[in-house]
Design goal:
Elements lengths: L9 H21 L14 E4 L2 E4 L4 E7 L2 E6 L5 H9 L8 E3 L2 E5 L5 H38 L4 H34 L2
Antiparallel strand pairs: 1-2, 3-4, 4-6, 5-6
């Protein structure tokens, strides 16, 4: 068997690691630094109709003023589920309900709140690192399968090195993004 028979799809691995970075950027966008933003609710999932549903699929998210986000819930029976999802999201915002409108007053960021948001950012970064490592593991599994199908040990080492380099590059991107986001959060 020739070396070409054992191509490891690094493009697929790269695409999946890019996906983890994209998800991290979305989660970071949700961490607002004291100003109201509709994107801060993007990662919030609501238990609706027996499944986890993005909050923007159960209501309209608006920013009527700089320190207020509202969610106009379309189905009255989901109002408490929306409130619960927001409280459990780690955003540290206490929703206030007025009929089908859930109001989220955005508090001024004190030092404690900034530290809390920085911790949430670190959790998001760790989730991204885990996702990237899972993609790495998949790549290594592909290499193991190819090895048992006859890939030479030299080729195995080359591919493992390539997958590891890819992983290291993405982990560095996660760390840099986290550092930038935490600096942004801690800025007074």
């Amino acid at each position: 068997m020739s070396e070409e028979d054992f191509e490891i799809d690094t493009d697929d691995l790269t695409r999946r690691m890019d996906g983890a970075m994209g998800a991290l950027k979305t989660e970071f966008a949700s961490l607002r630094t004291g100003r109201a933003s509709a994107t801060m609710l993007e990662p919030v999932m609501v238990d609706a109709y027996g499944q986890k549903t993005p909050i923007n699929q159960v209501g309209t998210v608006n920013v009527p003023e700089p320190r207020m986000v509202t969610v106009n819930v379309w189905d009255k029976s989901l109002v408490s589920a929306v409130e619960k999802a927001i409280m459990n999201s780690g955003l540290g915002i206490n929703p206030q309900t007025n009929g089908t409108i859930v109001m989220l007053p955005i508090p001024e960021l004190n030092e404690e709140r900034r530290a809390e948001l920085a911790r949430v950012a670190a959790q998001y970064a760790e989730h991204a690192r885990v996702a990237i490592r899972n993609v790495r593991r998949d790549g290594m599994d592909q290499i193991k399968k190819a090895k048992s199908a006859g890939m030479s040990e030299d080729d195995q080492k080359i591919w493992e090195g390539e997958v590891q380099d890819l992983t290291d590059r993405f982990i560095k991107q996660v760390d840099a993004a986290l550092e930038h986001k935490q600096a942004e959060i801690m800025q007074v």
